[in-house]
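MODEL INPUT / OUTPUT PAIR
PAIR INDEX: 1
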Amino acid sequence: MEKQNLLLFNISTDSKNTSLGFAISWINNFSSFYDKVDIVTLHKGDVTNLNKNINVHCEEFNNLNRVIRFIKIRRIIKDLIRENSYKFCLSHMSSALVLVAFTIPKFRSTQTIFWYTHKGPESILKKIVLNVATKVSNKIITASQNSFPIKSDKVTPIGHAIDYESFYKKQISTKSKNFIIISRISRSKNIELSIQGFLKSCYGKTNELRIIGGAITEDDILYQSILKDKYKNYPNIKFLGTIPHAELSESIKDIGFHINNTSEGFYDKSVLETMASGIINFYTNSDYDRNIHPKYIKHLKFNSTESDLSKKINIISNFDDDNLLDLIKFSQKRVSEESLSNLHERILKVI
C-alpha cells in the first residue's frame, strides 16, 4: 500500500517529560504508517528514541518574544507545506499552532485534526485561541465525553493512547498497600485533599504515599513548596518529582493503589496506565466509571473530600484477594481498548 506523509503539531517532543513523554511512543507508532512524519513542536527535548523517518522542527523561546517566535514557527510550517504533501495534520493539545498554521492559505486545504483533552484554559486569551482553533479545525478528537471544554458537532471521543503492553502487569496477589499519586503538582488536582484522605485512612500510618509529578506555573511551584514544607515531617509522604515517562512503569511496579482527585473535564492518562499495571484507583471523575467493574464503583469513587476518600480506602481494605483481583482484571481489559496499538485506526475512523 502506498504510504503518505503526516504533519504533526504538539507542545513538547521530549522523552524525559513526565506528562508528555508518552508522545514519543505514539509518534513512533504513527511513523510505521507513513513515509515521513514532520513534527512542529514548541519544545524539543530528548528525541533520541524517535524513528528515523521522523523529523522534529522547533523554534525555542531563547531570547525571542512570543510574537517573533510564532512568526518563525509559521515560516517553518509554510516551508513544510510548500515542500510536502500530507495526508492530514494532527495537532496534539496545541490550539496555538492550529491558529498559526491556518493563516497560511495553502495549509487550509490540508485536513486538520485537533486532539485536545483538558478541562480548558483559565486565561481569556487562551480561551479565545481554543475557540478559534475549534472553528477552523475539520475534526476534533478527545479522550472522553467530558474532556473537551467546548460544545461542537466536530468532537468525537476516542479514548487515550496508553502504551498498554509496557504498563501491563499480571497480578496474582494484592499484597502491596502502598499508594501513589501521578499528577502535575497543581491546586486543580486537589493533591492536599488526597494526602489528608490517605493519612486519615487505615493505611496512613504504616504505608507510603508517593507523589510523582512536577510544577509548571509559578502558582504550581508555590503550591509544591507549601506541600513539601507541610509534610516534611511525614516519612511516609514522599515527593519524587518528575520521572521520565519511559521509566514510569518500572517506578510503580510495587504500588497497590492510585489516587486521582480531579474533577470532570480531566481524563488523566495516569489513571489508565496505573489500571493497566494492576493498580486499584480511587477517583472522583465519572468518566472513569466505564473502566471499573459496576459492583465496585461505589467503593472506589469518592466525592473529592478527604473524609470520603479515607472512608472508601477503609472499605476496600476489608476486601479479600479474589474481589480485588476481579476488579483489577476487569479494569485491565477495559483500558486495553485505549491502547497505543489501535490509536491510528481510531483516528482514521474519525476522518
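PAIR INDEX: 2
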Amino acid sequence: MENIQVDTYGILRPTDENGLMRSSHPWRERLLGSLQGQLQLATYLVVFVGFTGASSVGLYLGQRNVFSNERRLARANVEECKHAIESLTGNPGLLEKELLFHSGINNQLWVEYKNGDLFYAEIHGTASEEVFNKAMEANPQKKAGLQSFVEVNNSQHIVELVKEFPSGARLWMMSNTEASLKALSNYLAMMILIWGSCLSITLLTVSWVVRRIVKPLNQLNLATADLTAENLSDTRLQLNQAPTEIEDLQDTFNSLVERLAQSWSQQKQFVSAVSHELRTPLTIVQGYLHRTIKRSKNLTEAEIKGLQTANEETIRMRNLLDDLLDLSRSDSDRLSITNEDVCLSERLERVAMLARNTIPRTFRIKFPERKRLIAKADPARLQQVLLDLIENADKYSPEEAPIELVLREDTEGPAIDVIDHGIGIPPEELETVFERFQRASNAPYKTGTGLGLSLVKLFVEGMGGRIELASRLGEGSRFTVHLKS
C-alpha cells in the first residue's frame, strides 16, 4: 500500500520508501532537481535568449534597411525633380511631364497648390485625387519632412510632405511599401526557418555536451551506491576524458575508499584478535565457576545464586564472542560450513528439546506425512540457526503465546517455519532486520546485540539455502528456512 503524508498545505501526497514526500510534478524534479537538468535549462535559456535577441536585432535592422532604401530611392527622385517642379509651376504641361517622369506605380508625386487644388500626372493603376486627399489628412499640420503610413487599396503607403515652395505650393510624395513588406515577410520567414534550425541543432548539441560533462558524476554516483564493506578493497573509480575538477574528485574518492578499506581491514583483524583472545580466558572462567558450583557444599544459597548468575553471563559473553568470530571469519572468507545429508525431523526434535531446557514456553511441532526429509546442511550451523530463531521468537512474544515449529516440503524443497505470535515487524523493516546491529523499531526493550538474524542469514546462505520472512504488526512473524535436498 502506498504511504501517504500531509504536506504543509494540508494536501495528501505520496511518499517514497524513505518517508520523503514525492513531488506531484516529476518533470520538475527531473529538470530542476538534478545538476544535468539545471545545466541544460540554464544553457537552453541563454541560447534561446541569445538567438531571439540576435534574430530580433537582425529583423529590426533588416526592416530598417528595407524602408531606408525605399525612402532613399524616393528621395533621389524628389531631389532630381524638385528644381524642375519649382520652375515649371506656371507651365502645367511641362510640370505634368516632369511629375510623370519621376512617378510610377510604387512612387507617386503630386503638387498641392495654395488654394487646395491638386496637380498630378495620371498613371494607369495609380492613386486618384480622393486617395491623395486621404493621404494628406495624415499630416494635418502640413509639416515638411513628416512621414506617415496610410492604407490604400489594402496596401501600406508612406506619405511625406517633401517641400513647401515660397509660392505656397507643396510637393507631396507617396510610396507603395507593399513590395518592401513582402520582401520583409520573406526575410522574416527565412529568419524564422534559420533561427529554428540553428536553435534545434544548438539545443541538441548542448544536451549532448551537458550529458558528457555530467557522465563522470553519474559514474561516481553509481560507484558510491555500489560501495559496500565487502568490495572496498576492489573498488576504484577510473574516469576517461573527465574535466580536471572531476579528475580531482575521482582521486579524492579513490583515496577515501583506500583509507576506508584499510580501516575496515584493521577493524576486522582487531575484532578477530580480540574475540579469539577473550574466548580462552572466558572458557577458563566458565569452567572454574561450573566446578565451584558443583563441588562446593559449604556455599550459601545466595553465593550459589551469584555464581550461577556469573556463569550465565559468562556463557552469554562467550556466545557473543563466537558470533563476532563467525562474522570476522565471514568477512575474511574463512567461515567454515560443511554440508552433509541431515535428517531434518531428527534435528528439529533435538532443537526443540534444547530449547525447552532454557525457554519455559509451549512448543508446537508439526511434521509432514513423509517425516524423514533429508537436506544438505551443516548440522551444527543449522541447529544454531533454529535456536537463534526460537530465541528471537521468545524475546518478542507474550509469555503465554506458543512457538510453532513446522517442517514441510514445498516446490523449492525442504523448509522449516519458526512461527511466533508476538508484536510483529513493521513492513518497511522486513529487509533491514537481517543487517548487522539492526533491530525492529517497535522492540519494547533493548536487549541483544542485533547480530542474531544477520548470522542466521549468513549461515543459511552459506548452506546454499535462503531465509524468508513474513510478518504482521500485532500478529507475529514467520521465519522460513529453505534448504536444498
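PAIR 2 NOTE: Residues 244-331 form a domain with the Helix Hairpins fold (CATH 1.10.287.130).
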